[in-house]
Amino acid sequence: MITVLFVDDEPDFLDLAGDMLSRYTDFAVDVLVSPEEALEKVRTGFYDVVVSDYDMEGMNGIALLRTLRGEGNTIPFIMMTGIGCEHTAIEALNSDADFYLEKGEEPGVMFDHLARRIREAAHRHLTAQALKQANKKLNLLYSVTRHDILNQLTIALGFVEIMKNRISDPSELRYMEKIERSSKAIFSLIEFTRTYQEVGIRPPAWQYLAGTLRGSVASFDLGGVTFTQDVGVFEVYADPLLEKVFSNLIDNALRHGEHVTAITVTAGLREDGSLSIRVEDDGVGVPASDKERIFERGRGKNFGWGLFLVREILSITAMSLRETGVYGSGGRFEILVPAGYFRSDPH
């Protein structure tokens, strides 16, 4: 049974909506003329879907929707209005409405259409919630397992250290050192994955590029390396781990650039309508034969997880990453953001 709250300040239309939707045996429908009262009702968590008019006394449908979303309420929301204009539709969808429908069709057709959208929104929401819960449980299991493995590795490394101090035979000592290196490599890999355990778990969001870069570079002791950025007022739609993407690229330059003295991040539009974000350094660069191999899992330090995961994070919102620098002149990682996934003047 799908519980539906229908909100409209026109009593006659509200009566019609209640009667028409009651024909569907999988719906339980409540109707309200007051959006303020509807807000309180929705906060109880009883309903699966909200259907709301746009033009209402006091609080209109957009204000109702934005209030709910501002409180973190993700209940499916369908805007249904007689004011059929493109601006209203865009405003509703940008405010995170699930669907926007216009009144005015023959009632039977109109409410059949609405019923399909209600079912679709409810099903999609339930699927998303189930996936969220599954991810939460997997994340918890992973955290507990990682904790236990790290404890056992710490114990193993401790005994290795004891044995190294007791062994005098060089050949036996060499075997102990191999065990120690392997254990430390496992330790480093598990610690490294801690940073990326939430890849894709939280939904993408609009992120101010300049602010994200400030957060990325703040964790580094740059020493004598200068860092500059010129990315304008661009925002990008990306996984919340975008800051880690830039941290990894900056760390890559510092670790592998050999003689890096400057790191620069710039952003600009391309002729094809995409946005190019470039992270450049004046170090040694990457040989042509390695430009694609460095993104493979199992390459480089930390078993190659760094750049491999950076690509995975970016791909969640259709962004790509490539190395385009000239070997001997410096490294240059270029992120390509397709149209629709960036904006320069959101307000």
Question: Can you tell me about this structure?
Answer:
- By secondary structure, this protein is an alpha/beta fold.
- The chain has three domains: 127 residues, Rossmann fold, CATH 3.40.50; 65 residues; 139 residues, Heat Shock Protein 90.
- 46% of the residues lie in helices and 19% in strands.
- It is built from nine helices and 13 strands.
- The chain has a five-stranded parallel sheet with strand order 2-1-3-4-5, sandwiched between helices.
- The two termini are 40 Å apart.
Uncertain segments: none
Strand segment tally: 13
According to CATH, the homologous superfamily of the largest domain is Histidine kinase-like ATPase, C-terminal domain
CATH architecture of the largest domain: 2-Layer Sandwich
Can you give the helix content as a percent range?
40-55%
State the separation between the terminal residues, measured CA to CA: 40 Å
CATH topology of the largest domain: Heat Shock Protein 90
How many distinct helices? 9
> Which sheet architecture does the biggest sheet show?
5 strands, parallel
Adjacency order of strands in the biggest sheet: 2-1-3-4-5
Oligomer: single chain
Question: What pattern of helices and strands is seen along the backbone?
Answer: EHEHEHEHEHHEHEEHEEHEEE
User: Structurally, how many domains make up the residues?
Assistant: 3
**Sheet/helix structural class:** alpha/beta
Spatial shape: elongated
- Assess the beta-strand content as a share of residues: 15-25%
Mean pLDDT: 86
CATH secondary-structure class of the largest domain: Alpha Beta
Tell me the radius of gyration: 27 Å
